[in-house]
Specification:
alpha+beta; Phosphorylase Kinase, domain 1; Transferase(Phosphotransferase), domain 1; 2 domains; five-stranded antiparallel β-sheet; globular
Amino acid sequence: MSKAREKLKRQEKNVERRDRMLIHNVSEERATIEEVFDQSTRMVLYRFLTSGVLYELNGVVNAGKEARVYWGKTKTGEDRAVKIYLTSSAEFKKGMIMYIEGDYRFKNVKRDTRSLISTWAQKEFRNLDAAEKAKVRVPKPIAVERNVVVMEFLGKDGVSAPSLKEQAPNDPQKTYKQLITYMKRLYREAELVHGDLSEYNLMIWKGKLVMFDMSQSVPISHPQAKFLLNRDITNVNKFFSRKGVEVLSNEEVYKQVTGKNV
């Protein structure tokens, strides 16, 4: 067995050993690991490990129906978030098509599950990159291949920063104002609409508001862009209103973000 393959085997064992998911049933744990780390995904991780993008992969920090996020590290000790989209999620496949169709960046995408999920990962990477260039604080994208996205890890010691749902901001009024600015930059500079904006995918890290989970974000030319933006605005206003913020009307937020009337 080559040294590279031996290293991959050791990393796989580390993942299994260090996985901190709260699953007590051994058969369930094994099934989950096999679901996430199929052969194709293992080969992507192998290339990231041998190329220096990653040095080690540790425990899971977030687990959902669509993806698992793992805590990785570089050789120099920098933290990385490694998001692995599940290639076996049929329900996920149904939901993503609306966001891909009408996105001029991803024309003629095949409808098989692997092609769609690979496109979804590419979409998240490109959306994060565009948002960062527009000076919207997001996890910095590092690398993407197939169903795996490597990005900046926001948190400490393998524990990710809490979302606004988990921990309300200390200054909701200031956070609300910053969010409107981010939405404006995202729309006018990156020409994107987040598409699923709420307290679940916003966080405060080192005193700054951060947007994350941007795989569903669409260009402003997308047929559903206006609908998605209005939904984002409604979600944001509901959350901050509950926190005692004197929010703007939905129509005023729309105008500030887009420069247009509803």
